[in-house]
Specification:
six-stranded mixed beta sheet, four-stranded antiparallel beta sheet, 253 residues, Rossmann fold, globular, alpha/beta, 9 helices
């Protein structure tokens, strides 16, 4: 591990990251030497066409898979050097992960779903309840605390999933197509929530998305193609959604 005492909160550094998949005797390269550095907290997008490697990159960043080569450093910690037990603890306490599928437990209430990581971590019940209710209040879901997922809207379920991901106040949050199952109005609410988390809590939020309208809520978009970062687009540099969509489709840097 690196000494993180001098590292910026939520900093991400990748150097020469490669990942291959094996289909029988065939080797399929997914990432071909990714270099990426994010120093400041904020809301960032990873974009690219299907098969570009964006989901593979997110899974490596979120410590759900390991690179074949290269280094991945989050918050000053070389996660590619951690063993499985260390990775589990790192995921639970230092990063949050949100998926397109909400992955809520159908037999548990909204409050119990939010506080599940604390239960697994051995936190006392009263402390879990207080922490969970405070988080639900911040998400505008206090009146849904006792509801099970099937009694919640898609947007409410995704907010519950986000609440679960930030229960331990991580410095980095990863979101993989978090609005893929939501309508446009609800998607806007989720994008605003992610933006607010990044800006109000000094959190680094990384979202994989194929939607330019989603990326317009971010500070920068990292465009992947064929396993490489093709370009970085500064969203705050006066770009509009039409120009972003055009640049997303451009074939070269």
């Amino acid at each position: 591990m690196s000494d993180n005492s001098t590292q910026p909160n939520g900093a991400i550094r990748l150097k020469g990251v490669t990942k291959n998949y094996h289909l029988g005797k065939r080797v399929v390269p997914a990432l071909k030497g990714i270099d990426l550095e994010i120093i400041d907290p904020g809301f960032y997008a990873i974009m690219g066409p299907s098969g570009s490697g964006k989901s593979t990159l997110l899974h490596l960043l979120a410590a759900l898979d390991r690179p074949d080569a290269g280094s991945i450093e989050l918050d000053g910690v070389r996660i590619d050097t951690l063993n499985e037990t260390q990775l589990t603890q790192f995921r639970r306490h230092q990063i949050g992960i949100v998926f397109q599928q909400y992955n809520l437990i159908s037999t548990m209430s909204a409050l119990d779903n939010v506080t599940l990581p604390a239960l697994l971590d051995g936190m006392p019940r009263k402390q879990r309840y207080e922490k969970g209710m405070k988080l639900l209040e911040s998400l505008g879901l206090t009146d849904r605390a006792d509801h099970r997922p099937d009694a919640l809207s898609g947007g409410e379920q995704q907010r519950i999933a986000i609440g679960r991901a930030i229960l331990f106040e991580p410095s980095i949050l990863f979101a993989d197509e978090p609005t893929g199952n939501l309508d446009s109005e609800t998607s806007e609410q989720v994008w605003k929530l992610l933006h607010d988390l990044a800006n109000q809590q000094d959190m680094t939020v990384i979202m994989v998305t194929h939607e330019p309208v989603a990326a317009m809520h971010c500070e920068k978009a990292f465009i992947l193609r064929d396993g490489r970062i093709l370009r970085t687009i500064d969203i705050h540099d006066g770009i509009d959604i039409g120009e972003l969509a055009t640049r997303l489709l451009q074939p070269d840097g």
